[in-house]
Design a protein that fits this description.
single chain; 45 residues; alpha+beta; three-stranded antiparallel sheet; two-stranded antiparallel sheet; 1 helix; 20% helix
Length: 45
């Protein structure tokens, strides 16, 4: 699982993911979202 910060609002598996918030998604989904610029990898705090 990878934490990503969303750049856009999107629906994912019936949930609404809002821009600017951090969510944890599976690695393959995170890689696709980061590559397509709809999310960026969240820094571990």
């Amino acid at each position: 699982m990878t934490k990503v910060k969303m750049n856009v609002q999107t629906a994912f598996h019936g949930d609404l993911l809002r821009a600017g918030k951090v969510y944890e998604v599976d690695d393959s989904t995170a890689e696709r979202w980061i590559a397509s610029k709809i999310a960026e990898k969240a820094e571990d705090e």
